[in-house]
Amino acid sequence: MAAAIKGGAGIPTNVATEHAAAAAVAKASVININESACDPKRISKEDLGNKKVVSEEALGLRKVDLYSEDTVKPEVTDYSRPAPGSSTKFERAYVNAPPMIPHSVEGLLPIKKDNNQCLGCHMPESAKAVGATAIPVSHFTNYRPETVLKNGELVKEGKVVGLKGELGNVGDIKIAKAKRMDTLYQGRFNCSQCHAPQAKVDPVVGNTFQPDGLTEKFKSHSSLADAMNEGVQ
Prior knowledge:
Layout: H1 2-7, H2 14-23, E1 30-31, H3 40-46, H4 56-59, E2 89-90, H5 119-122, H6 124-130, E3 141-142, E4 147-150, E5 153-156, E6 159-160, E7 179-180, H7 224-227
Parallel strand pairs: 1-2
Antiparallel strand pairs: 3-7, 4-5, 5-6
Keywords: Electron transport, Heme, Iron, Metal-binding, Periplasm, Signal, Transport
Protein name: Periplasmic nitrate reductase, electron transfer subunit
Family: Belongs to the NapB family.
């Protein structure tokens, strides 16, 4: 795994080569895939609190007769997307939210220890040239506390953890200094644990969530490394 991370790419394949070529024509704009769910007219229409009478059909997500399955059809899930580089980036749901994957992941998943195709386009040294989103500084930083077992006791950041220790619980830990690295931190190697492809489906309910501080810049960029300790210092 370390070799794959240091190298910045997985094993080359025809699919990866095609994707890298398509990435050269990537668009810089972003789209809000939650726009239809946040539409004020839709939210007002679905708000049961302002209705005098609420039917049984309106209570469920299916909006059909609850006593019959004859007219119930499962939602068709379509994950087809343009090739990497030819798609439009998705707007982040909130500041520093993990960006969702706007392109096809055919041939890219699952990620394996010796084959991570994502790194071929998204490592900083490659991203700009192919029009991809660069992996941010936070992914090259180890934020985990230094942990050792000493004399049968758990020691984090040089302090004993436990009821009789210097730290009552792990929530009291303050990292002395985050460790910047020249290579991708291995805890970030599995991209799909946070970043996921999005199906082409209409959300079944409206969404009143409105993110604070989501400026045009942060719709497609991260400031997580600068804001990591906000609210905990």
